[in-house]
Structure formats: C-alpha cells, structure tokens
Write a structure and sequence with these properties.
- InterPro entries: DUF2272.
- Keywords: Signal.
- This is DUF2272 domain-containing protein.
- It comes from Belnapia arida.
- Helix 1 crosses helix 6 and helix 3 crosses helix 5.
- The protein has one domain.
- The longest helix has 17 residues.
- The protein is built from 7 helices and 7 strands.
- The two termini are 21 Å apart.
- The protein has 260 residues and is of the alpha+beta class.
Amino acid sequence: MRSILLLLLLGACAVAPPLAAPLPYPPAARERIVRIALGEWAEWGGVVVEAGTPGNSTGAESDPANFPRVLAYWRAVPKDEGAVERNRTLYAQAIGGAGGQGLWQEPYWSAAFISFVLGAAGVDRREFLPSAAHSDYVDALIRDALAFPASAPFLPRGPFEAAPRPGDLLCADRGPVPITDWRQRAVDAGRFRPMHCDIVVRAGPGVVEVVGGNVRDSVTMTRFPTDAAGYLLPRPAGEPAWFALFQNRLGRLPPWSPLS
C-alpha cells in the first residue's frame, strides 16, 4: 500500500507540486460550510428531490431575480470561462424586455457554487482551490491528501468506505465510462472529466442529504438512501457513479481536536 501511495504522489506532483503544508482550521469553518450551503438552498426556494426520481428543470436560474446569486458564485472563481460577461448581457436583455433567453444556462455553475460556499466559510485558496471545474479542486484535494496525510483538510475515501458526515464533499463521475474510486482519478494525470460534487448537510441511518448547485437549474437538496449504519447504498445503473467521499477534517485536526 505504501508503494502505491508513493506512485500516486509522484504522479500528482508531476502535474502540480504542492505548496507549504495546509493550515488547520477551527470547527467553526466546517459548521459555516454547512450553514452557508443550507442558507443558499433556502434562498433558492428549498427544492428537495429524492435520488433517482425523474424531474424537470425548476427554471430558477433563468429568473432575473436570481441573477445576483449565480453572479456571486462565478465571482468566487479566478476564471469564469466568460460566464459573467455573457450573462450580464442576457440579464440586461431580460430586464429590458428583450427576452434574455438562456440566462446562466452556460457554462455550468455547479463547481462555482462549491467554490463560493467554501470561500464564504473562510477556507483559504491554499486549502481549497476555487475553480469553475470540479476536477481542478478534486485534483488539488487529492494532491494535498497524498503529500500531507496528517494535515490535509479533506481526506479522500472510497464512496462506500466511510459514512458521510456534514461538511463532507460527495463526488460523482458523469462520464460515459466513469471512474468509481478516487485512486483512479489520482493517476488520471489531471485530464478533464465531467464531475459533480455536493456538500453533505445532514446524514444518518437511512438517508444522507446533500446540497449542490446547478441541480435542476437551482441550488437543490438531494436525498440519497443509506444503510442502517449511515453508509451510502450503490446508485442504480445509468446514474452518475460516485468515486469519492472527501471527509471534511476542518476542526478535527490538532490543535483544535485530536486527529480523527
């Protein structure tokens, strides 16, 4: 196992060498992540969906009243892929009566949402790399965990290796040939993969509730079934495949708490 981790680390470092060791954070940072995610969800109308159930778009992202919400998410990432300029124009058309069809429909803003929540909670860019692509911050979290296993703020686990807890990140691969374990991503040389991550806000026996952005064109809570011990159950064939549960260790590392 040690040799495998060493090979993963060498491969990860070849893509982007880690900086100085990450800093520990107090429990308040983890609590703020959950509180902010729930607050954003409530402001979007508190939409709840059961995993695997069909449903249409809420249409919420195209409502001009929600323009500043998505704008704030895009402003949280260093490169917005032209999203702000494109959608400012659409917003001006919408409020001017000229239509403005497709407001915030391109590019996808789910990774920007995650970046906004982590940044608003006070997690610095050294500990969480904000990006318009989930794969960018996923790769950065994996590199930190391999290089600094004792102090990395997020620890990658297989999706069925641990029970989710509030503040964790649950990530799925949306590609046609999905990966099913974070170790596969670690040797993927940083190549782009379509992904989606959600923030765990509540967890327990029978169900885990997560909040994510750009889910049915809103900030939405999704409920996934778990077993009696709180472990995720496999998703039905054809749905995005989970490949990682990033355990949130903010406030759970020395000097704030014994290593756990």
